[in-house]
Amino acid sequence: MNASTDFRRAERIATVEISEIVRLSERAADMRVAGRDVIALSTGEPDFPTPAPVVEAAHAAALAGKTRYTATAGTAELRDAVAARPGVTRAEVLISTGAKQVLANAMLATLDPGDEVLVPAPYWSSYTEIVTMAGGRAVVITCPMSADFKLSPEALEAAITPKTRWLMLNSPSNPTGVVYTADELRALADVLARHPNVWIIADEIYEHLNYVPVMSFRDAAPELEQRTLIVNGVSKAWSMTGWRIGWGIGPKALIAAMTAVQGQVTSGACSVSQAAGLAALTGDNEHLKPRCAAFRARRDKLVAGLNAIDGIQCPNPDGAFYVFPSITRLIERGGFASDAAFCTWLLDEVGVAIVPGRAFGLEGHARISFAYADGELDEGLARIADAAGRLG
Ligand code: PMP
């Protein structure tokens, strides 16, 4: 082949890969197709259906001809529905193709080469990759299990440099389920108040899936509102991962810059999905309570079951639908090179897919999703216990 036609990646994305979560889930799906009986506890999407009135609203919108490009920043109706909280105006809201695109827009709109973004670990894998793709530098702050996986004000203060542009906060957290209390958010806000060049992304996509009260960063730190971007969406609470609707709430100038980026990349979110998102946001939300109760019951069973396995130590998550236990003793006992090697073995040995901590920036752990039906969770748990027993 002619050398000039060889494929070459941009340096900017040299290290960017398909996420380990996707890779493992696809491997599990392939194994299933090949006839293996696989329990995949690896993905972060609710097993419940999208509420019927939401689906009906999308259907009606499509039949009514709402099938054209919408305004780049989203339909006025949906932006207003998102803005329906004290002190927010339409100009401070951007609708995107999932919360993920909100994050990408924000990074592309603000980062220059070498700009730093603070990412407390364990983190949702895409944070660091999006920062890298936008040409910035993700600065990981390790928050171990002994610190409840939470960023302390001291660790935040120590990580800030003149190049810091953003802090990424995620509460309730993926992968740990950790929820920051109002006092903890205040303590972080006090540090940030001393560093006016640092902006804050508060990813609150799991806001409504909680087992303790959840406070929005905007409510905890109103004085930082002019440099805070709230990220949220319908994917998790309304079981709408495939509809791809998320939003950002932030200062007008930031939202305008993000809208300019989005306009050149996707033109805006899907029109029919925006109609569905509107129905979700303005609906009665009757589905939420029973679903949270179901998630809580699964969580209780999973945490108890995992802690009963010798070699696993599992904290109790306060929100979202993940547990992030320490598996270091199992890794040692089995002589595995890493948590990833353990997870690969687990999938081959007993057909259970879970995601290694490495994918979230913290080795020695694994993320197990409980967004699965009880039968699958029970079977998954039994197989993990069985596998652990085989390690002697
Ligand atoms: N933030 C976090 C913390 C997530 O876990 C996810 C989904 N896995 C997203 C953002 C992206 O959500 P969306 O489907 O709306 O793009």
UniProtKB/TrEMBL annotation:
Transmembrane segments: none annotated. It is an enzyme of class 2 (transferase). This is Aminotransferase. Keywords: Aminotransferase, Pyridoxal phosphate, Transferase. Its cofactor is pyridoxal 5'-phosphate. Residues 37-384 form the Aminotransferase class I/classII large domain. It catalyses: L-aspartate + 2-oxoglutarate = oxaloacetate + L-glutamate. Belongs to the class-I pyridoxal-phosphate-dependent aminotransferase family. GO terms for molecular function: transaminase activity. The keyword Transferase applies. Its EC number is 2.6.1.-.
